[in-house]
Amino acid sequence: MKVTFLGTGTSHGVPVIGCSCPVCTSTDPHDNRMRSSILIEKGDSAVVIDTGCEFRMQALRAGIKHLDAVLYTHAHADHLMGLDDLRVFSKNERFPVYGFTSTLDAVRKIFPYAFRELPYKGAPRLEAVTVEDGEIFTAGTIEFQAIPLMHGLMRIAGYRFGRTAYLTDVSDILWNENRERLEGVRTLIIGALRDRPHWSHFTFSEAVDAARTIGAEKVYFTHINHETGYRDIQERFAPYAESAYDGLELEVEDE
Ligand SMILES: [Zn+2]
Ligand SMILES: [Zn+2]
Ligand SMILES: [Zn+2]
C-alpha cells in the first residue's frame, strides 16, 4: 500500500498570505505546504482523505486519474472546500464520501447541490456514507477503521488502514476508547501544529508522546504551520519523528 502526502500544511497553508517570516520566505521546497490530505493506493484502489481548497492542484500534481472514495475527518474549510472538484469522478455513478454523521451533515449544508436527487447537470453527484466510532469499512478494496478523536470541542475522525493511522487535527486521542483500535500501528501520521500549545491541535512534543504511547515505530508530522521550518523539525525530531512534506511517498504494510 502506498501513501502520498498531497498536503501537509495547517489551515492557512505555508507560506501564509502576506507573511514574510523566515519559513514563509524559505527557498526550501519542503516549506511549501498545501492543506493537509493524503492519497492511499492499493492495487487498483485509490482513496483520498480530505479535500482542502487545493484538491484540484494536488490531484493534478499527484497524477490522480481514478478515485474510489473520499474519507472526511471533519468539515473545517481546510479539509473540505475542494469537494466540488470531485465531480470528475461522479460522471457515471454517485461518488461515495465517508465520515461521521456530524461531518456529513455539515458537508450537506455547505454543498447541498452535490447530494440532490436530480442534480444540476455537471454538478458533483455524491453519496454520503456514514461511519460510526470504531467502524471497520471498505472503500475500494482498502479496509479502514474510523478512530474518533477530539479536535478542541469537536469530535472528528481519524482513520486506520493496515498498520498505519492518519490522525490529524487532534488534541485528545481518547485513549479509553482507542487504545485497542490503535494497537499494532507501526506508522503514525499525526497532526502537529507547532511548538506552542494550541487548544485544538497537538504540539510536536504532544504528538511524539502520543506516538510513544501507541507504540508506533515511525512518526510523520502533518498539518504544520509556518512557525517551524522543515529543517528545524528534522534536526530536532528525526529519526523517530519526521516532518512529512508535500509529495512525500511512503510504502506501508497492507495489514
Ligand atoms: Zn485542519
Ligand atoms: Zn510566515
Ligand atoms: Zn480542523
Structural class: alpha/beta
Sketch the major β-sheet. 7 strands, mixed
Structural domain count: 1
Share of helix, binned: 10-25%
Question: What's the arrangement of strands in the largest beta sheet?
Answer: 6-5-4-3-2-1-14
Unreliable runs, pLDDT <50, ≥5 residues?
none
Give the overall shape.
Answer: globular
| CATH third-level topology | Metallo-beta-lactamase, Chain A
User: What is the top-level CATH class?
Assistant: Alpha Beta
Bound molecules: zinc ion
Assign the CATH architecture.
Answer: 4-Layer Sandwich
Instruction: Give the termini separation.
Output: 9 Å
Explain what you see.
The protein has 255 residues and is an alpha/beta fold. The protein has one domain (2-247): 4-Layer Sandwich (Metallo-beta-lactamase, Chain A), CATH 3.60.15. Helices cover 18% and strands 28% of the residues. The chain is built from 6 helices and 14 strands. It has helices at 55-62, 77-80, 101-110, 175-178, 204-214, 230-237, and strands at residues 2-7, 37-42, 45-49, 69-71, 95-99, 126-130, 136-139, 142-151, 154-161, 164-167, 187-191, 218-222, 241-243, 249-251. The protein has a 7-stranded mixed beta sheet with strand order 6-5-4-3-2-1-14. Strand 8 (142-151) and strand 9 form a beta hairpin. The longest helix has 11 residues, at 204-214. It is globular, with a radius of gyration of 17 Å. It starts with a strand and ends with a strand. The structure holds zinc ion (ZN) (3 copies). The site of one zinc ion has 6 residues, from helix 2.
